[in-house]
Amino acid sequence: MQSELKISTLAHTWIIDVDGTICVHNGYKNGGDKILDGVREFFAQIPAEDMVLILTSRPSSEKENLEKFMHANGLRYDQMIFDAPMGERILVNDNKPSGLKMAYAINKSRDAALSYQIILDKDL
Q: pTM for the full model?
Protein backbone atom coordinates (compact mmCIF):
# COMPACT_ATOMS: atom_id res chain seq x y z
CA MET A 1 0.00 0.00 0.00
CA GLN A 2 1.36 3.41 -0.96
CA SER A 3 1.44 6.12 1.69
CA GLU A 4 1.13 9.84 1.03
CA LEU A 5 3.56 12.57 1.99
CA LYS A 6 1.80 15.93 1.67
CA ILE A 7 4.24 18.85 1.58
CA SER A 8 4.25 22.50 0.56
CA THR A 9 5.26 23.80 -2.86
CA LEU A 10 8.37 25.46 -1.39
CA ALA A 11 11.76 24.00 -2.34
CA HIS A 12 12.74 21.15 -0.02
CA THR A 13 15.82 19.40 1.34
CA TRP A 14 15.65 15.61 1.25
CA ILE A 15 18.02 13.70 3.56
CA ILE A 16 17.97 10.08 2.48
CA ASP A 17 19.83 7.12 3.97
CA VAL A 18 21.33 4.45 1.69
CA ASP A 19 21.39 0.96 3.17
CA GLY A 20 17.95 -0.48 3.80
CA THR A 21 16.31 2.62 2.28
CA ILE A 22 17.66 2.98 -1.28
CA CYS A 23 19.27 -0.42 -1.62
CA VAL A 24 19.42 -3.73 0.21
CA HIS A 25 21.19 -3.29 3.55
CA ASN A 26 24.92 -4.05 3.25
CA GLY A 27 24.48 -5.36 -0.29
CA TYR A 28 27.75 -3.70 -1.23
CA LYS A 29 29.47 -6.12 1.20
CA ASN A 30 27.64 -9.14 -0.25
CA GLY A 31 28.08 -9.11 -4.01
CA GLY A 32 26.85 -5.63 -4.92
CA ASP A 33 24.09 -3.13 -4.35
CA LYS A 34 20.52 -3.92 -5.38
CA ILE A 35 17.96 -1.14 -5.62
CA LEU A 36 14.81 -1.56 -3.55
CA ASP A 37 11.31 -1.49 -5.00
CA GLY A 38 9.78 1.95 -5.38
CA VAL A 39 13.05 3.88 -5.06
CA ARG A 40 13.24 5.03 -8.70
CA GLU A 41 9.60 6.09 -8.58
CA PHE A 42 10.11 7.93 -5.29
CA PHE A 43 13.15 9.84 -6.57
CA ALA A 44 11.31 10.68 -9.81
CA GLN A 45 8.71 12.57 -7.76
CA ILE A 46 11.25 14.85 -6.05
CA PRO A 47 10.96 18.30 -7.66
CA ALA A 48 14.00 19.40 -9.69
CA GLU A 49 14.57 22.49 -7.52
CA ASP A 50 14.83 20.41 -4.34
CA MET A 51 18.15 19.45 -2.74
CA VAL A 52 18.89 15.75 -2.22
CA LEU A 53 21.44 14.87 0.45
CA ILE A 54 22.50 11.22 0.66
CA LEU A 55 23.65 10.05 4.09
CA THR A 56 25.42 6.78 4.80
CA SER A 57 27.52 4.97 7.37
CA ARG A 58 29.53 3.48 4.54
CA PRO A 59 33.19 4.40 4.59
CA SER A 60 34.29 7.14 2.21
CA SER A 61 36.30 4.48 0.34
CA GLU A 62 32.91 3.37 -1.09
CA LYS A 63 32.20 6.79 -2.64
CA GLU A 64 33.03 5.89 -6.25
CA ASN A 65 31.00 2.66 -6.11
CA LEU A 66 27.96 4.39 -4.62
CA GLU A 67 28.15 7.26 -7.12
CA LYS A 68 28.20 4.70 -9.99
CA PHE A 69 25.22 2.86 -8.47
CA MET A 70 23.21 6.07 -8.09
CA HIS A 71 23.98 7.17 -11.65
CA ALA A 72 23.24 3.72 -13.13
CA ASN A 73 19.83 3.79 -11.46
CA GLY A 74 18.98 7.37 -12.43
CA LEU A 75 18.96 8.60 -8.82
CA ARG A 76 19.95 12.24 -8.60
CA TYR A 77 21.57 13.82 -5.58
CA ASP A 78 23.38 17.03 -4.71
CA GLN A 79 25.74 15.80 -1.99
CA MET A 80 26.75 12.61 -0.22
CA ILE A 81 27.97 12.29 3.34
CA PHE A 82 29.92 9.14 4.24
CA ASP A 83 31.14 7.74 7.58
CA ALA A 84 27.99 8.84 9.45
CA PRO A 85 27.44 7.12 12.81
CA MET A 86 25.13 4.10 12.71
CA GLY A 87 22.80 5.43 15.41
CA GLU A 88 19.61 7.43 15.02
CA ARG A 89 19.48 10.40 12.64
CA ILE A 90 17.92 13.38 14.37
CA LEU A 91 16.60 16.38 12.43
CA VAL A 92 15.91 19.55 14.40
CA ASN A 93 14.14 22.44 12.68
CA ASP A 94 11.73 25.26 13.51
CA ASN A 95 8.18 25.58 12.18
CA LYS A 96 7.15 28.64 10.19
CA PRO A 97 5.02 31.26 12.02
CA SER A 98 2.18 30.29 9.66
CA GLY A 99 2.16 26.85 11.28
CA LEU A 100 3.82 25.03 8.37
CA LYS A 101 5.72 22.00 9.70
CA MET A 102 9.32 22.26 8.58
CA ALA A 103 10.48 18.73 9.36
CA TYR A 104 9.15 15.29 8.50
CA ALA A 105 10.55 11.81 9.01
CA ILE A 106 9.75 8.59 7.20
CA ASN A 107 10.71 5.53 9.22
CA LYS A 108 10.38 2.45 7.04
CA SER A 109 11.20 -1.20 7.59
CA ARG A 110 14.70 -2.14 6.49
CA ASP A 111 14.82 -3.33 2.86
CA ALA A 112 11.07 -2.73 2.40
CA ALA A 113 9.80 -0.91 -0.67
CA LEU A 114 9.94 2.89 -0.62
CA SER A 115 6.28 3.36 -1.38
CA TYR A 116 5.25 6.99 -0.94
CA GLN A 117 3.35 9.34 -3.16
CA ILE A 118 4.64 12.90 -2.80
CA ILE A 119 1.83 15.45 -2.95
CA LEU A 120 2.71 19.11 -3.37
CA ASP A 121 -0.04 21.10 -1.67
CA LYS A 122 -0.19 24.84 -2.45
CA ASP A 123 -2.46 25.34 0.58
CA LEU A 124 0.23 24.31 3.07
A: 0.93
